[in-house]
Amino acid sequence: MIEDHFIEKGSFKDPNGQIYEQNNNVFRKIYPSYFETYKLLKKNGFIERLIKKELLIFHEEISHNEKSIVLKHSKIPFISYPYEWSFNQIKEAALLTLEIQHEAINNGFSLKDASAYNVQFLGTRPIFIDTTSFEIYEEGQPWKAYKQFCEHFIVPLLLMKYRDIHFSKWLIYFLDGIPLMIAKKILPFRSNFNLLTLIHVVLHSKAIKNANKKYFIPTQAIFISKKKMLNIIEHLYESIECLSICRNSKWNKYYLDCPYDSTSRNEKTNFVLQSISNIGNYRVLDIGSNECYFIKNFFNKFNYYVAIDNDPYVINNLFQNIKPITNVLPLVLDITNPSPSVGWANFERKSFLTRINTNNVSLALAIIHHLRITYNIPLTYIAQLFALLSKQLIIEFVPKNDIQVKKLLYNKKDIYNDYNENEFLSIFSKYFNIVDSKKLTNSERIIYNMIRNEKNSNINPNT
Amino acid sequence: MNLLYIDPGNGSLLFQLIVAAMVTIVVFFKRIWRFIAFWKKDKNNDRRSLY
Lengths: 463, 51
Known about the structure:
The complex is a heterodimer of chains A (about 475) and B (about 50). With about 475 residues, chain A is an alpha/beta fold. In chain A, about 35% of the residues lie in helices and about 15% in strands. Chain A folds into 3 domains: about 70 residues; about 160 residues; about 210 residues, 3-Layer(aba) Sandwich (Rossmann fold). In chain A, helix 10 links the parallel strand 10 and strand 11. The model of chain A has no long low-confidence stretch (mean pLDDT about 90). Chain B is built from 1 helix and no strands. Chain B is elongated and about 45 Å long. The N terminus of chain B is likely disordered. Chain B is an all-alpha fold and about 50 residues long. In chain B, about 60% of the residues lie in helices and about 0% in strands. Chain B starts with 8 loop residues before the first helix and ends in a 12-residue tail after the last helix. Chains A and B meet through helix 3, helix 7 and helix 8 of A and helix 1 of B.
């Protein structure tokens, strides 16, 4: 019997198994209803081949009796959700799902669900995590997860490409994919020239609507040969592979306008690297990472690096540029509005703050002026959130005489009397011990290295 | 019969028959195109494929 607090509640939809976490290890308990399929998957060597090809997460069987089979999975360093992925991340997850379905059909299996939540990222490498998603394939049967695949992957990608890149955030509300009927109404007419829209969204939604109204044919009467099924998978794969987004945002070239010469740029990089040289197994959380200009040549020094930025274009570029690195995970996430807890009873998909935990080494380089002046967040709130997230904080203070702050205040009344170095230090030193600081040459900016003051570590920004 | 009780996925499964037919035509023309591209020695095509 697994104690309740160990169970990963998000896995409640699977009737064949249960995920639970114990002593920092992840286990999957498989119930007898899935024994037959699991034995075939193993006997066939299919699972082993997927693991070898790095398509499926590694696991080992640790116990086997008539009531359950227990598998121990490799742990994913940080669980992320599709509404936090950039365009290319969703695309890679879709291609992985299709590659696995192609392999599965060739080996006598099929994916019974094609949820985007079955894919996770190890850095920039997508990996399938659900061992109990397979069922035995009988020639002729259609793909049961086809509609789900369209709503979880194809629709978000098309909306992001043809309407706006921010449409991925709709997945927070539509947890089981964006409905085809809604997508059909929103997608522009020109998108119909893409077969993905025409066939898999427009005609597909019409077929569903007509089937509901006019006729009912039992699935047993539908026969699609294996060759034709593979053709469909290959067609989907090639069509999704062709999708791309070329536009950029103002943030892509932000650092070209910033007041850094090569000296201060190197000073900044060196200060960060020296400050976090002894972090051990801690995770680095880069808040407002942009394209990680200062750190990107040194990613190999970190255990695991989560880069968050609210601009989907910069995260898309970062992901594309650093592929196939496996210790850096870029995510589209707004620190002023992080992903909430959603789904059944608000426990199905956890909030960002619950998942990220409190022992990160956080980088907040040139972001505090945006938080204080653009978003009007009081310095105390900023310090509290950073203290909640960070065991160690490396933060760059950008003073009011800096050109970037002047730009922010150009058309705005300066009501930010508290935004100065003294006030900043007095507030942050309530939560952190300041270890070191460095003023950048040819600039007024100062970088601080701070360690959380554990006396004040029980901070809940909601209270 | 209450139509709301029909599985909304039914249309999707049935629709795959039509998709299969359409994709067969697409694949037919793609293979012809690939054949031509092969003779034209198109080396710029670096897209991934399941083939």
